[in-house]
Each structure stands twice: as structure tokens, then as C-alpha cells.
Amino acid sequence: MKTFLSCCFLLFVLCFSIKGNETRPNILFLFSDDHALKAISAYGGPLKEVAPTPHIDRIAKEGALFRNSFCANSICGPSRASILTGKHSHKNGFLRNSRTPFDQSQWTVAKALQATGYATAVVGKWHLKSHPVGFDFWEILPGQGSYYNPAFIQMSGETVRYEGYATDITTDKAIDWLEQRDPDKPFFLMCQHKAPHRTFSPALRHLGAFERIEIPEPETLFDDYADRSALLAANEMELDRHFDWAYDVKLRKDEMGDIPLPGPNRYGTPEYNRMTEAQKEVWDAHFAPKNQAFLADFSAGKLSHEDLVRWKYQRYIKNYLATVKAVDESVGRMLQYLEDNGLAENTVVIYSSDQGFFLGEHGWYDKRWMFEESFQMPFVVRWPGVIEPGARPEALIQNIDYAPTFLEIAGEPVPAEIQGESLVPILKGESVEDWRTSVYYAYYELGEHRVPQHFGVRTHRHKLIYFPETDEWNLFDLVNDPQEMKSVHEDPSYGETLIELRAEYDRLREKYEAPTYEEYAPKSR
Ligand code: SGN
Ligand code: CA
Q: Which residue of 34, 71, 144 sits with most ligand 1 atoms within 8 Å of its CB, as the best mutation to test the pocket?
């Protein structure tokens, strides 16, 4: 009896001390889909002046911005699985945007934070073919979700459609949850937008945001894919040959009539079809006159092949950047909420996106390749009193580092099986002598947009890529050739570098216990 009583007392003291002294920081993870670094003004670059993102920039100004931030596998579901598990794709089992659901029985950072007393929630895009586990609350888009009047899956399993724009609605849901959460617990909230993913559809209020502006073109818009693997030229993600006239360019069937536009016109306008009559009016008022003028010029033979690509680029980039605008506004709303509710000081705020994206570089839209534009992930983080405002760490970081970072923020130990490293020492500004000097990449999809499986290693200066399909290696010197236009793999002056990188690549594959190329090759589908 005595032991029983003292046990009760101990338990009481323990519970009381955890609750009473709750100082563990909240973690607010603001996330988007396919947001290229170039479309965040804090990262600098040619779009900085024309398309500022003041709210994301504010996180970078008051906190840290990581330029050398990368994904483990440049595609949606796998990036999210790496974030939740702290592991490379072959270890968490979610190698592709496949039909097989993410294995929810495994360890995730959400489960761990929930178990240690955090209030946990996820809203918006999930895309792991399963319902979230480890969250007290969730409300997610089915698959990719829709931009206009989107449906959300509720915890009850029911699907409810809301009128409005996905980015705004996702933000509303995040704030609603913060309002009604248990205030005695620290929180972990993942607010995950579908934007600016294809079909790059802006909030109606932003349709004309870039109307009178000519957006600068990337230097590599007319890449001829020479001097690298021939697999590049076999891609299906070019503005020139693959951008869909209705789906991507946003010409409607009745506008196009029989005009013989070169290139695909397969998917129609599903987003437009979801709109209310009033929404369609706003859309048409913006697009119809521009579409008519373009079609008249095309029919009159006024546009060269290059003019067509340039016109599509302007249409694409304007819609993409306008779609980003609402994401940035959402970040602003979330920051304001923290401030208004006395939460700003003790909340770590992160902005990131599942991978980067091509904004016309190499003539492309989409991602997948280990080239910089899609391999990079934005990563800006604010942690008042811990991160020196304006910090710009040079460390090579990866999405497998997020889970161990969140654990250390919460004061929890990192399980040995986790492959990522906690960023907390870097956030504190400590010099981490033995921090990694290279990152490993693996892309396993089976051919969407005709991007082949490939694997590689990147250091601060070089990148080595292996294509099993052709048993080919490409090597890039990122200082001499930042646009990655010429592989120097055959260049004898890079002989020593090549030996070092091959060794580093092998070392990483061993360290991470990477599978053989055959194990997940397309034929073993
Ligand atoms: C869809 C898109 C692709 C895109 C993938 C993956 N086509 O399949 O263009 O690469 O998603 O994106 S669409 O016709 O459905 O828009 S991911 O971000 O989910 O990985
Ligand atoms: Ca994505």
C-alpha cells in the first residue's frame, strides 16, 4: 500500500511538473508543393524584384535561410515520407507516388511528438495514400486535391466540399485548429498547401497580379540537352512539346476551335469546370481577351516556334507566381496569428516545400531530376532567442533531417535507426565540425514525364549522377557550370575529383544501406 501511494505521488509530481513547467517550443511547419527557390525572394535570383514573397522573407530575416537544402527523392509522397520518418525512401518504403499506401505502422515524428505530449495536427495536402496517424486532428485533400471549391477528407472518413480557394481554406483550417487546441500542450502543426503544384491555378484575386510585367526568362529555356546523358532529351516535361494547351496553358475548347496548335491538348479544364458561374466570370474576364489575342496572332502566322515557347513560358510563370502569392499570404496570416496570441516567442516556424521545381530552366516544368532547380528544397526557419536573425548556414541539409530536428526541439532523444541529423546545433549557430560534406539522392519513379531512375551524390562543389538504364555517369562542376549544361565526366582534368566522388557515392550507399539498382528497377514493377 505504501509503495502504491508513493507511486501515485510520484506520478502526480511528474504530471504536474511536465504541465506546470511546459516550456517546450511549439513547432509550426508551413509547407507547400513544388515551390522553387527562385520563386521566394529571400533566396534572391532573377524573379526577386518582380515577385516578392514578403511573409516567407520575414521568416528568413528574423531567422535562418538554408541555401544548400535538398530532398532525398524529388517527388511529392516520397519527400513527405522522408520528412515524417527521417529516412531515405528505401528505408521508409515509400519510394514513389505509388498506389501502395505509406506504411503507417512505422515510427514517425508525428507519433513521437504526440506520445511525448504534443498536440498534433495536419491540414491540407497529405498524398501518402492513407489517412494520417499520429495526429490528434487532421483534415486532408484527397490525392492532389483541387484548387477551386476543394473537397477535404474529414477524420470521420466523410468528404466535404468547401466553396473557395484551397490555399485560403487550408489556412482557415490550420487557424481553426490552433483556436480550439489544448493550450496546456505544446503543438506540432503541419499546414500543407497543394499550391503551387500543377495546374498552377491562382486565387481569383491574384489572376492579374503580373499582367503588365514581362517576367525574365531563364537562360536555359532553349536547352538542346547536348553534353549530358541522352536520357535528358527523351523527357516529357517541356513547355515546348508537352505543356497541355487546355490544362496548363488555360485555353478553353471553345476558344481553340479547330486551330491547329502544336502539342498536346488532352486533359481539358477540370479546375474551370469546378467553378461557380460567378467564379467563371472572373476567370474569363482575365483570360479570354488574352487568349483571343494570342489565337489571332497564331492564326495569322505571326508567331515563330520560339515565340510560342516564350509565350507559353510567360503564361506559365505568371500563373505559377500568382499561385505562390496566396501561399505567401497564408504564411503572413499564420505569423500574425502567432503574434496576436502571444505564441510567436515560443514557436519554431519553418517554411519548406516538398521539392523544388523547374520554372522554364532546361525548357522544363515539373521536377524529379537531381538538377539543382528540383533537387533543392526551400528551408527557412525562425526560432526567437535561439537562431541569430539573418543567419545563412552553408551546411548541406536534407529533408531526412527534419524529424530529428523536431525531436531535439521537443527535447526527445533521436532513435538510432533515423538516418537524418538534427539541425539544432546549426540553428544555435554552433560550429559543427563533423557535419556531412555530401548528400545522397535516389529517384525511383517508373517513367512519369519520362524521367529515368537515377541516383547521385552532391558535395558543396560537385554533383555525380548515375543512370542505371544506360549505365551512364554525369559529373557537374557547380562552380564553373551552375546551370549544369555540360557533364565533365569524360574530362581528364576532373579525373581525381571523379575518383573521390565515386568513393563518396559508394560510401553513402553503404552507410544508408541503399538497395541494388535492380531491386526497384522499372521491370520489377
Ligand atoms: C501529377 C501531375 C504531374 C506531376 C505529378 C507528381 N500531373 O501526376 O505533372 O509531376 O502529379 O506531382 S497532373 O495532370 O495530375 O497535374 S507530386 O508533387 O504530387 O509529386
Ligand atoms: Ca510536389
A: 144
* Strand 187-192 relative to strand 26-32, pairing: parallel
pLDDT in tens, 117-128: 999 999 999 999
Ligand having the closest approach to the CA of 367: 1
C-alpha 144/C-alpha 168 separation (Å) is 16
DSSP one-letter string for 339-375: HHTT-STTEEEEEEESS---SSGGGB-S--SSSHHHH
CB 170 within 8 A of CB 191: yes
Q: Report, in angstroms and rounded to the nearest whole number, the Rg of the chain calculated over CA atoms.
A: 24
Atom number in ligand 1 closest to CA 127: 19
- Cα gap 219→226, rounded to integer Å: 15
Q: Give pTM, 2 decimals.
A: 0.95
What ligand 1 atom has the least distance to the C-alpha of 365?
Answer: 9
Q: How far is CA 522 from CA 134, 445, 453, 454, in A?
A: 33, 8, 8, 12
Nearest-angstrom CA–CA distance, 370 and 374: 7
Which pLDDT does position 523 carry in this prediction?
A: 80
Question: Residue 3: what pLDDT?
Answer: 47
CA distance 36 to 356: 4
| 78 CA from centroid of ligand 1 (Å) | 13
Which domains are assigned to the chain? Answer: 205-316 (no CATH), 441-520 (3.30.1120.10)
Helix (H/G/I), strand (E/B), else coil: 138: strand
Q: How many CB atoms lie within 10 A of CB 257?
A: 8
Q: Whose CA is nearest to atom 8 of ligand 1?
A: 448
Q: How far is the centre of ligand 2, averaged over its atoms, from the C-alpha of 185 (Å)?
A: 31
What length does the chain have? 525
Does residue 408 sit in helix, strand or coil?
A: helix
What was the pLDDT predicted at 98?
79
Q: Which atom of ligand 1 is nearest to the CA of 75?
A: 20
Site to probe by mutation for ligand 1, drawn from 74, 97, 374, 449 as the one with most ligand atoms within 8 Å of Cβ, is 97
CA–CA separation, 411 and 403 (whole Å): 12
Tens-place pLDDT, residues 451-487: 999 999 999 999 999 999 999 999 999 999 999 999 9
524: cell is 520489377
Q: Across the strands, what pairs with 190?
A: 29, 122
- Residue ranges of the chain with per-residue pLDDT less than 70: 1-21, 524-525
Residue 102 three-state SS: coil
Pocket of ligand 1 (CB under 6 A): 33-34, 75-76, 97, 127, 144, 197-199, 366, 448-449
User: Which residue has its alpha carbon closest to ligand 1 atom 16?
Assistant: 198
